[in-house]
Amino acid sequence: MNEVTKKQVALEITKEIYRDFPDLWAKFGENGRFRTEEDNLHHLNHLETTLKMNDESYFLDYTEWLNRVLTSRNVGTHLIIDNFERLIRHLRHYGSEEEQKAYTGYLKSAINQLQD
Known about the structure:
The chain has 5 helices and no strands. By secondary structure, it is an all-alpha fold. It is globular, with a radius of gyration of 13 Å. The N and C termini lie far apart (30 Å).
């Protein structure tokens, strides 16, 4: 996925999150919106690297770290899960069938890890 597409996906997901969770504006403001978009770019980059490495544990380790960092900043795990579910929906429209299948698998594994 090229950088323009990644930025487009990250922006679309961020808009959805802030539309569906309007209390985030009061809690985190514009900086939080910016950070959410930035985080989505990180998620996409980590998915891409995980595919190149063919090692799901790379994304699962990232997810564990991400959860620790964000929960320490009062961002609930449920928001990470919601974000990953949105990525699954959006990524069905991008990349090859192999990429879509791999990314969906990594994200579902990460969601399961977060739910345990």
